[in-house]
Amino acid sequence: MCSEVAYVDGSVTALSFAQEHDHTVLSIHECANQEYQNPDDETPASNPREQIKGRAKVGPDVRVSAEKVLRSFNTWAFKREQPSDPQLMLQVIATAIKAQEPIPFVLYWGKGPRHEMAAPETACLDFLSALVSRVRSVYKHGAAIKLILTDTHAELNGHARHNIHAYFDEIELAAKQRGFETCLLSHLVKAAGDIRPAVPLDEVVTAQTLASLVASAQKWYRGNATPEEGALTYLRMNLIEQRAVEHAFPRSIFVTFNGSDLRCLFPTKLPIFYMYSLRRGVSVKPWFLTAESEKFDFGSVREDPRPLN
Predict the structure, then answer these.
(1) Total structural domains in the chain?
(2) Spatial distance between the Cα atoms of 77 and 249, rounded to a whole number of angstroms
(3) 8: how many CB neighbours lie within 10 A of its CB?
(4) pLDDT tens for residues 66-120?
(5) Domain hosting residue 287, numbered range
(6) Sign of dihedral through CA atoms 145, 230, 197, 211?
(7) pTM for the complete prediction?
(8) pLDDT of 115-171, one tens digit each?
(9) Does residue 223 fall inside a structural domain?
(10) Which CATH number covers residue 8?
(11) pLDDT: is 12 or 153 the higher one?
(12) Cβ–Cβ contacts within 10 Å for residue 172, how many?
């Protein structure tokens, strides 16, 4: 399968996944271009009075350590496995602490068969809010959640644009009510410019991973091509999109409800936090779950292996 695809080409644009969506405003988080530093390394004021005055002004929170913040959310209450790069994650946290800013988290939010929000989405957003609260319990600036709405993947899977907009509009509103921000993945790709990598797929993705994505495409893909072609297009898109995310959020922690077996699909330069989706023990993506909230039993949910988001 992999041998049939030599290099990533420009065919992805033919899928129209980078089109404009006039009703959505792109807001890309701007980060300071500075080296990561340990927040505990303080330069003493030249004057003792200035030093005391400075400490009184910023308050005791300036002394919170990156390790303490990491421990607040890096627990089995939230994580499904260990993070990809704890040291890089500490650096991201330390940079935010030094700037007295929220700890930045970004994650993909996809679309399944439903065209409206339901109980699973609410449960997932509330679970993310619980993570923010956990961080705020040790760090007064808390955490900032950015949902990247994967309109590109929804179009690839064959969903009509008006259904994509309707669903993501509801997600955007619910996210805003919880203090979260959103953006469209297609806008991030366009803003990043020409970032198409010439990387052979068989050097990035194992045959086993490709086979699992094909199996998932057979269930969720409703495009005009075969499930095999849909899975390969999805992989090509991810190689571009992961770089667009790095470009937009270079000092962030990337959250995913997938496991580390799909690490090749996530931004390579960002630390990855592998998180449960609804509560501890549940990793299935909420947009693939039933909307029958009265009969919904989170405890009975089983993970759908590697669905395309």
Answers:
(1) 1
(2) 26
(3) 19
(4) 999 999 999 999 999 999 999 999 999 999 999 999 999 999 999 999 999 999 9
(5) 2-19+66-300
(6) positive
(7) 0.74
(8) 999 999 999 999 999 999 999 999 999 999 999 999 999 999 999 999 999 999 999
(9) yes
(10) 3.40.50
(11) 153
(12) 21
